[in-house]
Structure to design on (405 residues):
């Protein structure tokens, strides 16, 4: 049984993990026995603010049929920081937030060595690398492209979360989309991912593609085809929704009002309607992998940057809290050697993704990492039960905590 412990603190982080020693002076050095012809390819889909329980087949049938039923769903996967930018930086670096330095959504320029991410490690090893979609908050259309990315198609500017009228930094150019139905953001990102996959396959290159759509964060704007999805849907009201007795909670929770039941219902179904377009994206990408004969050899990862609270513990539309709804996110992996149709409750975290993919690719990380190759958990879910995962929150109030096995 996993346990979360946390303490509210004033000042700097009180516990600091040392970075691991998985480091190479030559980033992207491939281990013996791995060549471009045998190298695995990767597609990593990262949604925005998706809860661990928002993966039901009623609104995400493709995710279930193509990834969950054919791969492994990790039910206890957790984030170090339950916030967009720290979470995304950890996915790319395999490091805790206090080591990669992105602690909030407003200090994204502090990313320590943005050119030393998994993209650089794989790019130096001969991979075609691509980033498509939401990067870090505040990324402007004049922002630089970090080293390691061959195809850089990051959402940029002030309309990143908008389904229409947004801009994409495409290499050194900026493409602004309009208001036509064909400009719907999630669909466009899916098309860009397909383009990269097809180009890499045609060139005989292994690829590493990160696709980062903005649902369900996008201000409750579903695709037109999904506006009437789930008629009569009732968002589950959980025991801790508008929690009646918060006497055992910190003062800032005790001061929150217990109301807004209608917000719970509206926000819940609106988020699911948004996710239906992401479900279509999963199908579009999977079909592309099949067309280029890479479906059976590519690893597909589905996850999110952080979870979300919808009035649990009275927190309205919240994240960056050390609660399960905020820390836990979906984590599904399909690929060679990954058990199919399995639910795994092993103790894994977002710090583990980059080092695991690097290990599968036979590439040594070119920078320190805090995570580990999580593949032992596939055969033994209890393999990492003795580890301790650090959590932190920076913002009114600061807090630090741990999850133990």
């Amino acid at each position: 049984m996993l346990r979360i412990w946390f303490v509210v603190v004033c000042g700097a982080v009180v516990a600091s993990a040392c970075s691991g020693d998985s480091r190479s002076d030559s980033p992207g050095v491939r281990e013996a026995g791995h060549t471009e012809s045998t190298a695995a390819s990767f597609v990593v889909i990262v949604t925005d603010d998706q809860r661990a329980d928002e993966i039901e087949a009623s609104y995400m049938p493709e995710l279930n049929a193509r990834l969950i039923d054919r791969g492994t769903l990790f039910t206890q996967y957790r984030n170090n920081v339950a916030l967009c930018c720290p979470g995304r930086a950890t996915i790319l670096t395999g490091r805790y937030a206090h080591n990669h330095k992105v602690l909030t959504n407003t200090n994204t320029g502090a990313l320590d060595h943005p050119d030393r991410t998994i993209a650089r490690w794989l790019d130096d090893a001969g991979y075609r690398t691509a980033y498509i979609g939401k990067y870090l908050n505040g990324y402007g259309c004049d922002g630089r492209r970090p080293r390691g990315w061959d195809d850089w198609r990051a959402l940029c500017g002030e309309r990143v979360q908008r389904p229409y009228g947004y801009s994409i930094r495409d290499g050194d150019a900026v493409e602004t989309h309009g208001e036509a139905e064909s400009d719907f953001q999630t669909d466009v990102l899916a098309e860009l991912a397909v383009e990269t996959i097809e180009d890499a396959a045609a060139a005989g290159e292994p690829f590493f593609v990160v696709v980062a759509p903005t649902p369900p964060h996008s201000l409750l704007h579903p695709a037109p085809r999904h506006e009437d999805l789930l008629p009569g849907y009732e968002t589950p009201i959980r025991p801790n929704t508008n929690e009646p007795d918060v006497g055992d909670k910190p003062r800032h929770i005790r001061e929150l009002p217990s109301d807004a039941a209608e917000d719970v219902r509206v926000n819940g179904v609106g988020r699911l309607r948004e996710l239906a377009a992401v479900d279509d994206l999963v199908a579009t990408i999977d079909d592309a992998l099949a067309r280029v004969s890479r479906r059976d050899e590519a690893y597909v990862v589905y996850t999110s940057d952080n979870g979300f609270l919808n009035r649990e513990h009275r927190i309205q539309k919240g994240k960056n809290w050390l609660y399960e709804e905020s820390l836990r996110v979906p984590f599904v992996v399909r690929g060679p050697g990954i058990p199919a149709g399995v639910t795994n409750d092993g103790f894994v975290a977002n710090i583990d993704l980059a080092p695991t993919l690097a290990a599968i690719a036979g590439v040594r990380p070119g920078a320190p990492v805090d995570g580990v190759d999580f593949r032992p958990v596939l055969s033994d879910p209890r393999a990492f039960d003795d580890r301790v995962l650090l959590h932190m929150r920076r913002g009114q109030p600061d807090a630090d905590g741990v999850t133990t096995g």
Remarks:
- Residues 43-387 form a domain with the Alkaline Phosphatase, subunit A fold (CATH 3.40.720.10).
- The chain has ten helices and 13 strands.
- The chain has a mean pLDDT of 89.
- The longest strand covers residues 3-9.
